[in-house]
Structure formats: C-alpha cells, structure tokens
C-alpha cells in the first residue's frame, strides 16, 4: 500500500505531462534546408471547425503557421465531404472546390478590427468520388450513393503588419472565399497560437 | 390497402398519440439561426421549417412513393426579408437512371414564380432569388427505382408582399419548377397544392416571428 501512492503519483504526473505541454509549441517540421540553408517551419495543425452544413455537407478545418526562409504564411486546411446520388465527371471534380489566386481570407479580431489576407496562388482542391454500392439490380451492384471528399491546403502570405496584428490579440471569426462561395468559421485563439510559435 | 401503407399508418397513429402533447407548443417562434453577422453586424435570422401540407397525407404519400411535401420558413438578412420554400417530391421508374438524370433532375430557375393564394381570394406573387438545384437520389426497391428530390428556393419579399402575407391566412401555393426527366409534379413544371386546413396560418406565423 505504501508503494502504491508514490507509484500512482508518478503515473498521474507522467500521464499529465504531455497535456501540460500541449499549450506550448509543437511542430510538424522544424529544420534547415540542406541546400538553401533556409529555415523551414510548420507548426502542428490545429483543428478549429467540424460541422454539418444544411445536413448534407460535412466540413473540417484546421490551421497552421509556416515559415520558409524569410517569408511567413498562415495556412488553412479544409476538408469538405458530401454524399451525392450521382458520380462527378473530371470537370466537376476539378471545379468542386477552387481557391483563386489572391482569394480573400478575412479575419475578425477580438476588438472588431479585421485583417485581410490573400491566397498565395490558385489552389484546386484534390477531390475524389467513391461509389458506395448497395443493392443489386439485374445481377450487378447498383451504385446508389457517391461519397465526394475534397481536400485543400491554402497558404496566405503574411507581411509584418498582418503578422503583428495576429500576434497581438485573438481572432474570433474568419471568412474564407472560394471561387463560388464563402465559408464562415468561428475560431478561438487558434490563429494567434499558431503564429506565436514561429 | 397495401401492407406498406398499413404499416405507415399504424406508425403514424402511434406517433400522433405519443407526440400530441408536444404539438401544443407549435405557436411559439423557434429559430435555426438568430444573431448578427460578425463581419457586417447585419441581423441574421432563420426561423424553423413549418409544414404547409398535412403530416398524415405526407405519410400516406411517402408510403406510396408519391411524396408531395412543402414547408416554409422566413429569413432576415439585414433589412431584407425573405421566405424559403422546401419541396420534397418523388417519382418512380422501371429504368435505371443515368448520372445526368439524377444530377439535372430538378431545378428552380432564378425568377421562377411562387404564387400564393390568400384565404380572401387575393394573390401574392414572388420570384426566386437565384437558381437552385435539387438534391436528388435514386433507390432500387422491389423492381422499381424510386427517385426522391429535395429542393429549397428563396424568395425575397418587399414591404407590400410582407404586409399581404402577414395579414391573412393562405389557402394554396403554386411554384414554377423545372424537372427534366421525372414527373415530380402532377402538372409538368408546376407544383400546386392546397395548404392543409391546420397549416393555413403558417406563412403568416413564420413572418410574425421575424417582425
């Protein structure tokens, strides 16, 4: 019984330790490029949104901050999933989710001011449609549903002003423009946390 | 009476008994969204869906694969008021649908008319804000393909239309729609229905919730 209390304490401390560190910076990549000697940093992706839109579309989004040499970027990863009753052709897949060059990312800060960023280049999301077979019709499986999954990572270049503004206070909402619609998300300090880790 | 209809009716009867006390609160306003746009500070409200067809006939129609449901809600975007109509329709076919049959099955084009007849015989005409596509799916069931579509169109209201619709009960609605291959409506290109006796105040009610 005597040995049990220190053991339990040690276990508790050990199991809590990673949680305590979680608020500090974690990196997916933190290295010097061997050829160019540039610093390459990518902070760990932090998920900030997952929801169902109109009951048809599921959306997941996460954020990370990137340094390449002297340039900093805010990067957003977005995944859209939707189930359709038909298959998409190649053009549909290509046009499913597109972020044009200079597409807006509007960030609303806690004090009501906004920071406006622009996509570094055009991003065409990687989109795949997977048939989900269900019943049999004339001996062959009848493909009733198609799960369409689309993934994109968009980089927004940060200048010194934007970087300072995003470090200074927390952001509350973002509005992300695509070629045909806007996505609104609420964020809770995720952007500030990512940028502060650069 | 086919077995499916009988089962559906039995379930409906059970639900109606169980759910009856809960229906007393129907008059209250409930919102799917009630707040302001964080960027523009504009007011944004969306009420919940209210049916215009009777739930009993909806259940019978569903069990016969002849869905013909319509519901309404009201929206506020800043100063602009709008109403949305959602149709749930179906058709059956013995031929396997192609992808384009499903994809282009149902559209409500921009400017398509919504014609509301009021209880006193007056009419209100509204026009669709933008082109919308239906969300269509096919199921293979017992030798036939059942094609179901859900489509939601939004109609902006001016002050006169808002006043006319909030003034009295509505008795019937007609929506111009565009279906390509499947006969989702009895009249081609037109969905027409009388509003269920108990639902005649529902358009007025959703508008009251946003004023």
Give me some keywords for this one.
heterodimer, A: 198 residues, alpha+beta, 7-stranded antiparallel β-sheet, 4-stranded antiparallel β-sheet, 4 helices, 13 strands, 52% strand, B: 211 residues, 5 helices, 42% strand, globular
Profile the largest sheet of chain B. Answer: 7 strands, antiparallel
Order of helices and strands of chain A: HEEEEEHEEEEEEHEEH
Helix/strand-derived category of chain A reads alpha+beta
How many individual β-strands of chain B? Answer: 14
Give the largest interface pair and sizes.
A-B, 19 and 14 residues
Note the run of SSEs of chain B as H and E.
HEEEHEEHEEEEEEHEEEH
Q: How many domains in all of chain A? A: 1
What is Rg of chain B? 18 Å
Average pLDDT of chain B works out at 89
Structural class of chain B: alpha+beta
* Number of spatially distinct domains of chain B: 1
The coarse overall form of chain A would be: elongated
Overall 3D form of chain B: globular
How much helical structure, as a percent, in the residues of chain B?
A: 10-25%
Mean pLDDT of chain A: 86
Amino-to-carboxy terminus distance of chain A:
48 Å
Beta percentage of chain B is 35-45%
């Amino acid at each position: 019984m005597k040995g049990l209390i220190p053991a339990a304490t040690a276990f508790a401390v050990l199991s809590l330790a990673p949680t305590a560190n979680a608020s500090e910076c974690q990196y997916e990549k933190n290295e010097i490029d061997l050829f160019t000697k540039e610093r390459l940093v990518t902070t760990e992706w932090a998920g900030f949104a997952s929801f169902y839109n109109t009951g048809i579309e599921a959306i997941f989004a996460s954020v990370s901050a990137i340094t390449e040499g002297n340039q900093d970027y805010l990067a957003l990863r977005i995944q859209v999933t939707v189930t359709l009753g038909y298959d998409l052709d190649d053009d549909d897949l290509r046009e499913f989710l597109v972020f044009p060059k200079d597409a807006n990312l509007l960030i609303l800060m806690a004090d009501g001011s906004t920071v406006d960023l622009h996509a570094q280049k055009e991003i065409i999301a990687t989109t795949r449609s997977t048939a989900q077979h269900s019943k049999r019709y004339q001996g062959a499986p009848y493909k009733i549903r198609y799960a369409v999954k689309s993934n994109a990572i968009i980089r927004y270049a940060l200048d010194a002003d934007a970087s300072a503004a995003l470090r200074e206070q927390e952001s509350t909402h973002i509005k992300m423009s695509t070629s045909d619609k806007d996505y609104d998300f609420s964020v809770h300090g995720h952007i500030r946390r990512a940028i502060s880790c650069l | 009476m086919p077995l499916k209809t009988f089962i559906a009716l039995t379930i409906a009867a059970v639900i109606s008994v169980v759910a009856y006390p809960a229906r007393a609160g129907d008059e209250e306003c409930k919102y799917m969204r009630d707040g302001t746009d964080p960027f523009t500070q504009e007011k944004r409200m969306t009420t919940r869906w209210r049916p215009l067809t009777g739930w009993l006939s909806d259940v019978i129609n569903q069990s016969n694969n002849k869905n013909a449901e319509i519901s309404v809600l009201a929206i506020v975007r800043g100063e602009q008021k709008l109403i949305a109509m959602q149709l749930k329709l179906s058709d059956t076919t013995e031929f396997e649908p192609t992808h384009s049959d499903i994809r282009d099955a149902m559209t409500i084009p921009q400017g398509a008319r919504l014609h509301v007849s009021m209880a006193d015989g007056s009419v209100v005409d509204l026009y669709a804000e933008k082109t919308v596509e239906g969300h269509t799916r096919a199921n293979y069931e017992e030798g036939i393909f059942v094609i179901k579509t859900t489509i939601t169109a939004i109609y902006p209201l001016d002050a006169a239309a808002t006043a006319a619709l909030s003034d009295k009960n509505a008795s019937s609605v007609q929506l111009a729609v565009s279906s390509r291959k499947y006969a989702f409506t009895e009249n081609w290109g037109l969905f027409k229905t009388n509003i269920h006796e108990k639902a005649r105040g529902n358009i007025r009610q959703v508008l009251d919730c946003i004023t």
